[in-house]
Amino acid sequence: MPARSKVTVVGAGNVGATCAQELARRDYCDVVLVDIKEGLPQGKALDINQAGPVVGYEPSVVGTNGYEETAGSDVVVITAGLPRQPGMSRDDLVATNENIVKSVTEASVAASPDAILIVVSNPLDAMCEVARRVSGWPRERVFGQAGILDTARFRTFIAWETNASVKDVQALVLGGHGDQMVPVASATTVGGVPLTKLVPADRLQAMVERTAVGGGEIVKLLGTSAWYAPGAASAQMVDAVCLDEKRVLACTAYLQGEYGIDDLYMGVPVKLGAGGIEEILVVDLSDDERQMLQASADAVREVVAVLKT
Fold first, then answer.
1. Fewer CB in a 10 Å sphere around the end CB: N or C, the chain?
2. d(CA 96, CA 79)
3. Annotated active-site positions, please?
4. What is the pTM of this model?
């Protein structure tokens, strides 16, 4: 029997706990759930473990307030940080979450020098940059979860609109994880049929716009950020790395010339495997989509420019 992978999830809030739960259900890795709040990670870990006999996985989740138990992790998922509040943009979170992500990255890297970092904290693109700078690791090993979530939202709306199975909807969302993300309609299909042949232009535009503000829609309803879909999306990325799946997924990667963008984290399709980002895939974009991606890049640069790290 091969050894189980070891995955650390930093932040035992809604997203982190959901990610830990999803990973526990997969039953291929041991999970360490870390949070500074005493009792929180221990309690959630105990609860997840006690679901094991019911769902059918081996209890293997540890909750801790420190990083000793995280030593030697294969993957570290960083969800720590303040969630968005109603009326708050992701950019408003920069200063506070920069300090949190910086300290978490330092502790995680010291305990697990060979790990791969998956950042989930918002504002996502800027927090990836913080983790890259603090760790000093190559771009293959420091990337973020956003595109899977944004794509999942787009796919959900498309399935509802076309009355088709969401399993048959393939979609792609590029750019920054914010209001200027770029859903690529030209790369979107339902059962292999281009979406543009199934949905009129005005309905397609409405779905694109709803996807772009998808996180904000949930914040307005709940009073805080989403967690079920983000947690599941983060777990899917861990799967791809730990199981060496070579999945092509939309992730926030550090671009160095791809799509004409230099030295910036942006959401693009990548191939994820045991080495982390093993390839960045460049898809053909329409002129409008290229312009939208460049505008998204400009918006991300503005946020990155205020980082102190």
1. N
2. 14
3. 177
4. 0.96
